[in-house]
Structure to design on (997 residues):
């Protein structure tokens, strides 16, 4: 009895001691609801990064070591709730800094809380241009600029033989995908190819049969789709059942994920996609070693493969750790200024924010070949793409 | 011209599945006067049942239909008998609220049990197609169209020619008169709701083969089912086929001629118009 | 007790007015949200509770109010107040134009027609350039939750006073008559169409103002959040839980349910919504007439109240 009391008391004392030297990061993430499928990358990425940084001794400010703590709330995929939760995080839970939610429309709404209370938010879930062109000073993003998503894909298309000449652009009508489409039109035009079909569809559409029939009648060489994972899955399955055979198709999301290959099986093959992150040992990292080590540790810990969402989440946490040490303070304004000065190598790539608060990362083109994701094109050709893809009845 | 015909074919085939989705909703609405906001969630559960039968036990989704329908029948029977019947004589809001509550419960449970991952049922023949007259007919959609037709016509025949069917119709028309004929309304209500749920289960099974299942598909599907049931009318299962096919055609043609982002304007606009002009449905008898 | 009630209400109101100076920002923003929901529930009470029409279209007015403010401020650089007026004007026009044909429908048909209308409006706005299509609009940032709080509180007080007036006016009795038996009301000389459309419009004005304030407060709207169907379901649940057709029921229902769901969502997360569903199901079974009825009768009948309810409403 006495022993347990002493143990309890010492625990309490320790708890207090720890409580004093803690920097808390707060985030409201989609743990449930329609976006939970991607939200989990952020929850797990944040947790993993915080644990790792703490294991390496935390962050040092003015010679004192601080542990990182993390407070995550579930916004149930409701953007109004997430705004309120960020206010709660700042005022009630007294978190020091903010990490972001997934998806552009959430980041768009939530960043106004960061701006209102002048606490920096680094988010790796929203890439839409609107987030960054409002002149806000406290919002930073680690996803590449939306309008440049298809830049490397179009560059790769120029190396193909025979080179695709006609392109169809399909995009969902939300902030992020509209930005992607605007950029893509420019890249395609600059490459001397022709956009012969340009179609906007409703977010969460499930029936693509009309669009695909239309595509079949104009028969473009390449189809570039900017949408959400569920739409991409429907598109591919319906393309197969309607026997639509473009020479190639590429998708902004879905292709790098394990879920995508599970859901489609063999039909996932030959789909092009993109990722701002490749788990290669060349991406060195101070806390995790390198991206490859991180990927296998992540898989072992959470039971599924990380993709660029998870890596981006880790980069957000690391950016805070670096910025706090650089500022040598946990004052939000000083840390905010330090974030703008950051320039460091991480498992996600080089993190340095531009004037608007975004980082510049090239997209690596990938393709599913023989049921595995293969890197195809970064600055130059990495592996040989399979082009044109075989028609559905010849697989 | 080929494009227009192909789009019409797509619409027709999708319409069959739409009809099957709404069939159970219309039946329950017509007989029990319950607008079941959890109908889409029942479709979702049917989809998961078929998914697990396929991935864990290797049962083909079309062969699994009777099994899935049986499971959902039991669920529906219990729901009506032990939960919904408790508020049978409550004001109308209350039936809407309680089914909404059930919808939330099913959705959250599905998420806890099955995770938020996208599930597709992918048998080897999924995605194959046949070509007739230069038009593409996806095999699975053809099958599911046929199944939807069979179940709809089967329900229609059952309502007309069997003892249970007559008892259900009698209960729908006049509860107290039905009692006099020795019909046990509790039993009949539970049976009807069970059949409605079983049909939702069948729709979910097929939906998993043509599209994909997540815990969150329920609400959208419920809204769609309203449109189909209203356009087709509640009196006759065959009307629901017309409703399903019409809605699918409206959606496909709007996507083709106006633009894919106008699909919801058209389909729900038509629903409002039908309600204002002919609330008994396009095929219903004039009041 | 009867005499003490007004005094009690004035004291509560006084405390509520002073809240931003007593409580922290988290409580204030929770309160802004709860006040908004209470106003919406009160608005729904007019058409749903009094007239007995289960409207799923009140979120349309919320959306029109939101877009009124957003378009005025973002696209036309007009002040917030003008935006509120624009939203109200559009809501009134909508209520008058759609109210006449849609309010002819009864029961489930009315519910579904309004539900479909809200889907149509959401789909139309996601195609409107001036409304920022499906991307939405970002409003200017105002760092004053106190202002939003007092505005929301004022709006709720006005809405509740209106309902109080309604509960003892000829107009209100007409609506109740329509709820109890519309054909009888008509034969007694109540101009049912005019009464219903007026009730719909009145409900619309309050929802629209709530939407306008909410849009400016949250600084971002898109069709999904502006015409959110689950918001409409929430207002119905709050009004019905509190007691439809009563003056304070919807306010109490909104306050209680927001508190419960806020508590749960910050502590339990995914189980929170499960619990919410279970609460709805049990409340509908045990207290089909709402909290106010339970409050009045439970002290008299005790636990038999619940058994009595089930006996009375089961098949």
């Amino acid at each position: 009895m006495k022993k347990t009391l002493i143990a309890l008391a010492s625990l309490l004392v320790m708890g207090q001691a720890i409580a004093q030297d803690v920097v808390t990061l707060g985030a409201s993430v989609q743990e449930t609801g329609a976006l939970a499928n991607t939200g989990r990358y952020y929850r797990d990425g944040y947790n993993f990064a915080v644990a790792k940084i703490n294991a390496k001794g935390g962050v040092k400010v003015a010679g004192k070591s601080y542990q990182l703590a993390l407070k995550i709330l579930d916004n149930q995929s409701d953007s109004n709730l997430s705004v309120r939760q960020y206010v709660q995080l700042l005022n009630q839970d007294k978190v020091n800094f903010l990490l972001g939610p997934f998806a552009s429309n959430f980041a768009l709404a939530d960043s106004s809380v960061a701006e209102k209370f002048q606490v920096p938010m680094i988010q790796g879930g929203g890439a839409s241009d609107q987030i960054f062109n409002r002149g806000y000073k406290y919002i930073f993003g680690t996803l590449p600029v939306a309008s440049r998503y298809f830049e490397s894909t179009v560059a790769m298309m120029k190396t193909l033989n025979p080179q695709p000449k006609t392109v169809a652009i399909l995009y969902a009508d939300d902030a992020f995908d509209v930005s992607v489409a605007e950029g893509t039109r420019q890249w395609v035009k600059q490459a001397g190819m022709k956009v012969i079909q340009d179609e906007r569809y409703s977010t969460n559409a499930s029936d693509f049969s009309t669009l695909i029939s239309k595509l079949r009648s104009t028969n473009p060489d390449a189809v570039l789709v900017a949408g959400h994972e569920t739409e991409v899955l429907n598109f591919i399955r319906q393309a197969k059942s309607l026997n639509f055979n473009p020479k190639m198709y590429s998708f902004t999301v879905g292709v790098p994920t394990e879920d995508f290959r599970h859901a489609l099986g063999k039909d996932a093959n030959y789909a092009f996609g993109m990722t701002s992150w490749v788990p290669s040992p060349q991406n060195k990292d101070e806390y995790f070693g390198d991206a490859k080590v991180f990927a296998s540790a992540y898989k072992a810990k959470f039971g599924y493969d990380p993709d660029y969402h998870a890596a981006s989440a880790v980069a957000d946490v690391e950016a805070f750790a670096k910025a706090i040490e650089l500022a040598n303070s946990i004052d939000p304004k000083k840390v905010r200024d330090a974030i703008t000065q950051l320039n460091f190598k991480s498992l996600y790539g080089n993190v340095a924010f531009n004037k608007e608060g975004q980082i510049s990362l090239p997209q690596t083109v990938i393709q599913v070949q023989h049921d595995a994701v293969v890197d195809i094109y970064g600055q130059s050709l990495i592996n040989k793409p399979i082009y044109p893809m075989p028609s559905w009845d010849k697989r | 011209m080929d494009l227009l015909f192909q789009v019409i074919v797509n619409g027709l085939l999708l319409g069959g599945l739409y009809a099957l989705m709404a069939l159970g909703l219309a039946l329950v609405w017509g007989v029990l006067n319950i607008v079941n906001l959890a109908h889409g969630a029942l479709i979702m559960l049917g989809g998961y049942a078929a998914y697990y039968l396929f991935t864990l036990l290797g049962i083909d989704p079309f062969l699994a239909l009777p099994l899935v329908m049986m499971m959902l029948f039991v669920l529906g029977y219990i729901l009506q008998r032990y939960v919904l019947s408790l508020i049978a004589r409550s004001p109308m809001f209350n039936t809407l609220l309680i089914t909404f509550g059930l919808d939330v419960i099913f959705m959250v449970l599905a998420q806890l049990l099955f995770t938020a991952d996208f599930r597709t049922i992918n048998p080897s023949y999924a995605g194959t197609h046949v070509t007739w007259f230069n038009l593409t007919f996806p095999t699975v959609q053809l099958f599911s169209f046929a199944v939807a037709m069979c179940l709809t016509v089967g329900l229609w025949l059952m309502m007309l020619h069997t003892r249970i069917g007559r008892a259900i119709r009698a209960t729908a028309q006049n509860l107290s008169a039905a009692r006099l004929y020795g019909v046990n309304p509790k039993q009949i209500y539970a049976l009807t709701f069970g059949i409605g749920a079983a049909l939702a289960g069948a729709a979910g099974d097929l939906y998993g083969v043509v599209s994909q299942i997540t815990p969150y598909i329920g609400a959208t599907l419920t809204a769609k089912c309203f449109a189909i049931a209203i356009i087709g009318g509640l009196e006759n299962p065959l009307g629901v086929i017309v409703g399903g096919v019409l809605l699918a055609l409206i959606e496909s043609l709007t996507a083709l001629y106006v633009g894919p982002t106008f699909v919801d304007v058209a389909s729900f606009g038509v629903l409002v118009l039908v309600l204002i002009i002919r609330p008994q449905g396009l095929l219903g008898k004039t009041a | 007790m009867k005499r003490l009630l007004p005094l009690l209400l004035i004291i509560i109101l006084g405390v509520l007015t002073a809240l931003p100076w007593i409580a922290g920002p988290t409580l204030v923003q929770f309160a802004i949200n709860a006040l908004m929901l209470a106003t919406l529930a009160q608005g729904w009470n007019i058409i749903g509770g009094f007239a007995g029409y289960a409207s799923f279209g009140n979120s349309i007015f919320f959306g029109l109010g939101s877009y009124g403010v957003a378009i005025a401020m973002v696209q036309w650089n007009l002040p917030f107040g003008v935006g509120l007026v624009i939203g109200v004007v559009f809501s009134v026009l909508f209520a008058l134009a759609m109210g006449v044909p849609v309010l002819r429908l009864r029961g489930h048909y009315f519910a579904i027609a309004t539900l479909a209308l809200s889907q149509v409006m959401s789909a139309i706005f996601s195609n409107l350039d001036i409304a920022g299509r499906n991307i939405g609009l970002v409003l200017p940032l105002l760092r004053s939750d106190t202002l939003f709080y007092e505005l929301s509180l004022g709006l709720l007080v006005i809405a509740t006073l209106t309902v109080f007036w309604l509960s003892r006016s000829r107009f209100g009795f007409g609506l109740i008559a329509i709820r109890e038996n519309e054909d009888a009301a008509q034969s007694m000389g109540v101009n049912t169409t005019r009464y219903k459309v007026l009730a719909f419009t009145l409900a619309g004005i309050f929802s629209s103002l709530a939407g306008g304030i909410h849009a400016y407060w949250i600084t971002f709207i898109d069709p999904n959040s502006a015409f959110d169907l689950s918001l409409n379901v929430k207002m119905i649940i709050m009004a019905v839980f509190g007691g439809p057709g009563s003056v304070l029921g919807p306010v109490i229902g909104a306050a209680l349910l927001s508190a419960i769901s806020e508590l749960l969502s910050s502590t339990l997360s995914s189980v929170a919504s499960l619990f919410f569903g279970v609460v709805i199901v049990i409340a509908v079974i045990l207290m089909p007439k709402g909290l106010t009825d339970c409050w009045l009768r439970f002290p008299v009948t005790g636990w038999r109240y619940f058994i009595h309810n089930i006996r009375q409403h089961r098949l």
